[in-house]
Amino acid sequence: MVKEPRPGRVKTRLGRDLGMVSAAWWFRHQTARLLRRLADPRWDLILAVAPDVEGMQSRVWPEALPRVPQGAGDLGNRMGRIFRSLPPGPVVIIGGDIPGITPAHIARAFKALGRAEAVLGPAPDGGYWLIGLKRTFAVQQSLFSGVRWSSEHAMADTVASLGTPHVAYIDTLQDVDTLADLKRISA
Fold first, then answer.
1. Do residues 127 and 62 touch, judged by C-beta distance below 8 A?
2. DSSP 126
3. DSSP state of 113
4. Residues in a beta bridge with 118
5. Theoretical Cys-Cys bridge with 127: which of 53, 123, 132, 146, CB 3.0 to 4.6 Å?
6. What three-state secondary structure class fits 185?
7. End-to-end CA, the chain
8. Sign of CA pseudo-dihedral 150, 160, 170, 105
9. What is the pLDDT of residue 104?
């Protein structure tokens, strides 16, 4: 899931300390490195873009990568829509602001979906950097209902909304929301 890297529209918490232009520049280059690193024949890489029209027409993202619009609503609405709209089979969603992601992390997530209905990659702040669903069942409209986004409760609330006892967890990775996060991963 990526947003068009425009100042003031992406990484605004980081931008408060770093400056909106610098935060957008960081996100654009971080995401470009991530997309190059995650290109792998074991899975299809699809960009879920926002805003919809601008993201679908953007020249920022590689032309060769297929794109789908994220649509309206909060993060849960947008992720739920992605899970419901893609062809059957396992799907893993990540954001573009996690510098530590490697193909091995993605492979572990898909492997975990062999034994669990859902997989999460925790973040130290109580959120998560990855969510995947096996999708052997219909993805409920109530998925992500009641999740307190951008809080230390996001992962626990998401697990509660999944409605399955079979949740696997993979590596904890740091996302970058603030200047302190950026300094932590740079150290």
1. no
2. S
3. T
4. 133, 167
5. 123
6. helix
7. 26
8. negative
9. 98
What strands, in cross-sheet order, belong to the sheet with 128-133?
A: 91-94, 128-133, 118-122, 167-169
pLDDT for the residue 136: 74
Q: How many residues belong to the chain?
A: 187
How large is the average pLDDT for residues 106-134? Answer: 96
Helix/strand/coil percent split, the chain, to 5 = 35, 15, 50
Backbone angles phi, psi at 91, to 5 degrees: -135, 135
Q: Which of helix, strand or coil describes residue 174?
A: coil
Structural domains in the chain (count): 1
Quick one: pLDDT at residue 186? 85
pTM above 0.70, yes or no: yes
* β-strand partners of 34: none
148: domain range? 2-186
User: Residues 72-91: what's their mean pLDDT?
Assistant: 94
Q: One-letter amino acid identity for 139?
A: V
